[in-house]
Amino acid sequence: MSANIFAQLPADQRRSEVDATDVILTGDRPTGSLHLGHYAGSLRSRLALQGRCEQTLLIADLQALTDSSGRAGHVAQQVTEVALDYLAIGIDPAQTTIAVQSQLGALAELTVLYLNLVTVARLERNPTVKAEVELRGFERDIPAGFLCYPVSQAADITGFRATVVPVGDDQVPMIEQTNEIVRRVNRLANASILPECRALLSTTPRLPGVDGRKASKSLGNAIPLTATSDEIRAFVRAMYTDPGHVRVSDPGRVHGNVVFAYLDAFDPDFTTVVELKEQYRAGGLGDIALKQRLGEVLETLIAPIRTRRAELERDREYVMDVIRAGNERAKSITEAVLRDIRGAFALFA
Amino acid sequence: MSANIFAQLPADQRRSEVDATDVILTGDRPTGSLHLGHYAGSLRSRLALQGRCEQTLLIADLQALTDSSGRAGHVAQQVTEVALDYLAIGIDPAQTTIAVQSQLGALAELTVLYLNLVTVARLERNPTVKAEVELRGFERDIPAGFLCYPVSQAADITGFRATVVPVGDDQVPMIEQTNEIVRRVNRLANASILPECRALLSTTPRLPGVDGRKASKSLGNAIPLTATSDEIRAFVRAMYTDPGHVRVSDPGRVHGNVVFAYLDAFDPDFTTVVELKEQYRAGGLGDIALKQRLGEVLETLIAPIRTRRAELERDREYVMDVIRAGNERAKSITEAVLRDIRGAFALFA
Predict the structure, then answer these.
(1) Contacts of A72 in chain B (CB under 8 A)
(2) Per the count of CB atoms within 10 A, which of A71, A101, A217, A227 is most buried?
(3) What percent of chain B has pLDDT over 70?
(4) What's the predicted TM-score (pTM) here?
């Protein structure tokens, strides 16, 4: 089983923005199973980039602790689930390193060192931190780990000497914060020991949930990467289309129509999708026929992932071996960086 | 050469507050050579406690970075100097572990984990942090590492499962902060995996500089542990006594008299010092005779330290071996604690 099943997918535009000397760091907080929204938003790009340059997927379990220190056991269990999802979609551990943040002590050491290079005021001004603080209603009760999270992220990025970090718009301030730290370290070292990194902005619009709201596991409106054929059909049947489109002959709206959002994201036949949109707008294309097509597209996409995941679930020892090997590789990379940074700080060696 | 030369010193009262099952963590920021003020205030107690229970001296080079990240090279060099001072005064590496904070990655990992258990507001309320922020004029430009310094100290203390931490009055809030973290970890683990610690308050008044002001290396008013006989004589000659005590027959003031402060601290013959004070107050005891006595007391104290330090300076490889062995010992202790804490957070193992 290889990543070839994804060859049918549209080549990601972003591939052209990355060259062979780049180092990509990306990953996920292990807070739940991944779904089609993740697939469209990030997983697919990782597959497209796989083998084109060095790529590490960091399962950020320590970052998952910063907003749920009470649910630690849940986080640990989800680490394996996320690794399973990676392997199931076609991430090849021979080409992409899968590693677990909390297993890499060097990242904690980098965090502690970098904390000296950033002021509290600067962290409080970080727009991503500000937005999240507001979102979570923390106010003055922000956990210190949460305020320091941009520093921990800078440790992750620089720990792998990453040059490219795929992010959403809202995370761009994090990249700026990291590059501030990079410049301070390089000034301290009086040499360019760390590369600056750049954001690789997602060009894919966020995939909505089947009801048209933001996709979220807790709302039950996101299609899991492990959905059965029946579940796929049920999700598609429930999809929000255009309430004004009653008869097949009625003209229908494409914008805000979840079925078209999914076809845009997953149907490999772009030309046909464009034609279907025209037909739908003009009238004469029914939701049932449209949903039939989407159901087949999703089944084609998900079936091999589902099969592969079932295989992997029966061979957990293999999954653990992959994680362990990834951690070892990541350890040697991050520890080499730490040695350089300790040198920059002129620490006792 | 052994610690026996200190047997002449008054037994420290504090010895009675510590028992054989206690674990002491103490140490210094490597910001300069140690002087007689350190000897009276802390080094002597460490000698008195040596062998009575487990004791670790942590050279806190990372904490020295939090207020002087620009002077990193200086800090590294001072690590060895502090270790030399320890050995020169009679710290026995077979009985007391000497370790370097930045060499113990587990302490950074504990710091990063504990950051999730403390709010920013709580750190800002910490009286020691508040006082230091004011003292250094940081205001909103506090380095994040400085705000998080109580958490790092909690990592140090718990990383050795310390039960006793010798501190000054001003550091008591740090101990409280540590015990808050201990209780949160134990609640998380649903077991008592970390001991609470208690402050061992210094009973010795702070030793003044020779001019009566606060002793400080930068003011040049502190007597180094390596002072030559000539330097000792010069320092004692310059000591502030009682400006109203002009003729030998004049009555003199003992309070605020630096010579008596030093005799109180270092003259092993308490009874004679009490008599000398009475004689001085009544009139009939000259400063020259008094300083003569103090000069001899200090020479007796410092001479063996000076000799031992000169020997050690010729054998730096031995000093490095001591530090390396101490680090190895400290590593195995702190890594075992980290494993327990990772368990409490139910991290991926």
Answers:
(1) 188, 344-347
(2) A101
(3) 92
(4) 0.90
Q: Which residue bears the tokens 């049947």?
A: A237
DSSP alpha helix (H) spans, chain A? 36-38, 44-49, 61-65, 72-89, 105-114, 120-125, 127-136, 144-147, 149-159, 172-189, 229-237, 258-266, 270-282, 287-313, 316-344
CB contact under 8 A, A108 and B112: yes
B4 in reach of chain A (CB within 8 A): no
B349 occurs within a structural domain: no
Reported as a single tens digit per residue, the pLDDT across A248-284 is: 999 999 999 999 999 999 999 999 999 999 999 999 9
Q: Are residues B329 and B274 in the same domain?
A: no
> Is there a contact between A105 and B109 if contact means CB atoms under 8 Å apart?
yes
User: With a CB-CB cutoff of 8 Å, which residues 180-239 of chain B face chain A?
Assistant: 188
Distance CA A282, CA A298 (A): 25
**A177 and A55, same structural domain?**
yes
Q: Is residue B182 domain-shared with residue B149, that is, in the same domain?
A: yes
| Neighbour count for residue B248 (Cβ, 10 Å) | 13
| CB contact residues (below 8 A), chain A span 132-161, against chain B | 140-148, 151-152
Q: Quick check: B80 contacting A, CB < 8 Å?
A: yes
Tokens of residue A37, six digits: 């929204």
Could you give the C-alpha distances from A145 to A65, A112, A291, in angstroms and in order? 9, 11, 45
Distance separating alpha carbons of residues B249 and B251, to the nearest angstrom: 7
Interface predicted TM-score (ipTM): 0.88
pLDDT digits (tens, 9 = 90+) for B17-67: 899 999 999 999 998 789 999 999 999 999 999 999 999 999 999 887 766
Kindly identify which residue of chain B lies nearest to residue A116, measuring between CA atoms. B145
Work out the minimum CA distance from A307 to partner chain B, whole angstroms: 26
Only one residue has tokens 């950020």, namely A60
User: Could you tell me the two tokens for B274?
Assistant: 């009490």
Residues A77-89: what's their mean pLDDT?
94
- A113/B62 Cβ within 8 A: yes
Structural domain containing residue A92: 3-206+316-344
B317 interfaces chain A, CB cutoff of 8 Å: no
